[in-house]
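ingest -> fold -> write
write: protein_1
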Amino acid sequence: MAWFALGRILFVAVVAYTASILQPFPFGQPANIGFALALAALVVFFESRLRETSITRVLGALIGCAIGLTIAHAIVSGLFWADTGNRRVEFLHSFTLIVLPYLGLVLGAKHGEWLEPARLLSLFRASGPQRRYKILDTSVIIDGRVADVCETGFVDGTLVIPQFVLKELQLVADSGDSMKRNRGRRGLDILQRIQKMSGVEVTISDVDFPEVREVDLKLIELARTLQGKIVTNDFNLNKVAQLRGVEVLNVNELANSLKPVVLPG
């Protein structure tokens, strides 16, 4: 963190020094330095927000913006026969050069997860049965019974551990409350146990949804993206996910269904 802070301070100082030397506006040196500081603060703000965004979304936004700009330039070049002196034609050219890169930026950022290596490779693979993803939430990891189910071989497909779930587990494990701390450490131990099992494929997903704050809603969005199922024992998450069209595997329901039926005699 100290290196990030030092880098930001140096960046702001360089921008202010450049503005004081070049003085791009005829308002005097203090006004130019003030403008440069405001501009540098705006850049630092955007940089701090970009740090919370996955690299695939940033790349998707840049690629989408470049494609939109290329299409807009081609359209404007194709309208060479139009009267460029007409204000309406000039506005149409400017609007095209603005709106298409913007649409490319937004759409590229929204679908940036397709730039992940696994997604890119799937485009070139022969059509066949898709991988089945089971996404674990924090409660079912701390519960621990999912490890026993995995050990028996009843769970197929790939177990997905989202990075934001790991972060939540770490926060619980570092809690000042001893009970919460023990639960968090138990969850981390359960994950290590699952990873060491033979025949169980476990992957850590870096896909995040910065615009979504609640972990449960992030899980639902990730399940939609991967077309997978959420493994949980949280009753509320179970209901919300079903309302949003996401399949859920509830460990509590599995345990209830396995209770032996006792008959007289």
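write: protein_2
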Amino acid sequence: MGSKIQIIEKMRGHILWICDRIGPRPPCSAAERRCAEYIRDEWKKYTDETFLEIFTCHPDAYRASFRWPIALTILSLCLYHLIPLLSFLCSTASFLILVFNLILNRELIDRAFPEKESCNVFAKFTPQGPSDRTVLISCHHDANFAFPIVNRFGSRFGLFMAVVVLSSALLTILTFLSLLLSFTGPEALLAGYQAVALPFLILLTAGVPVQLYTFLRVISEEPVLGANDNLSGVADCLALAEHLSQPETRPRQTTVWLVSFGCEEFGIRGSKRFIEKHRDEIQDAHVLNLDMVGGKGAKLQVVTKEEKNLIQLSPKMVRLVQEVARKEGIPLKTGPVIAFTDAMAFAMKGIQATSLVAQGEKGVVDTYHSVDDTPEHLDYDLLFDSYRLSLAVLEHIDAMPKQGERH
């Protein structure tokens, strides 16, 4: 395919073209669709098996999953003494939205919002001989809106969300006990409970300014270019397609799927829809997802857990990537990420998957969900290392003995 310099220049060219000609790509936007079509057209140069699949989702639920719980928690606090039942319902709804929509990426409130279209695009590359296994290397082509609170506080943003979650959970418990005792307990017991609950209510009230600040600053209306998040992964997958198309570098026994997902930023909706449609074909696949692999000042990291350590990715895939990185001499960290990548959608369905990301010393790089996520803030040497590691992982899997063969 060419030297390191040639590969980097091609990847840089793709990123610059998309940023200059297409621009920001919010989920379910026309620009997101144009980017998917660009990727498909590039992959068409290297394989006849390219596909663009439309799916539907409810992207406006994403903002609500941050803001509704805050509003409901504050409303519940105001109603605590006035209408205990409504206070309990508000706090419970707040907590359920946080858990299902924001933490577990379920779609509890999605149908309350308009349905819109997004798209996934993928390409298949057949091996030289009979196919014995499948490897899926993925990325996403949408980009988010700017998160002012993250740009100002970085990884400390998690503290603000912790206040939101803990406030909602605590208030749900307090309102439940208050409601229960008001119906079942003697007045003396209820009065005693309210005295005990008072310090907690004062604490919750003191936290309201933090919640209001989070409500206003968690996500803006300003779309970002997403050069690192995630045109870096897109560029890697475009470079991999050219490599896989050459007769001398085609895998020996592995069918390779290159996939780019839409609507990743708003709750991995694209990868979820993709798995729903293709699960029978990819159930036994090895999945390596590439996300934010080119940020300056970062180091490559293979991901072990996602969503505040709630979702474990494949230990087998993590060990495989570690082993390959050691053999290739590529520096690699190992650890969790606080948010999510598309690998989580696969792991939740029992498919062996992990993600390759690039993290700074304190977590996400400074340009994360920022208007500064532009091509000039990319480290193309790091981007090349992620390409090289992805390719080496694929070659390692392709060289594994077939089932039934002796080691």
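write: annotation protein_2
The CA atoms of residues 276 and 359 lie 30 Å apart.
The chain has a mean pLDDT of 95.
pipeline exit 0
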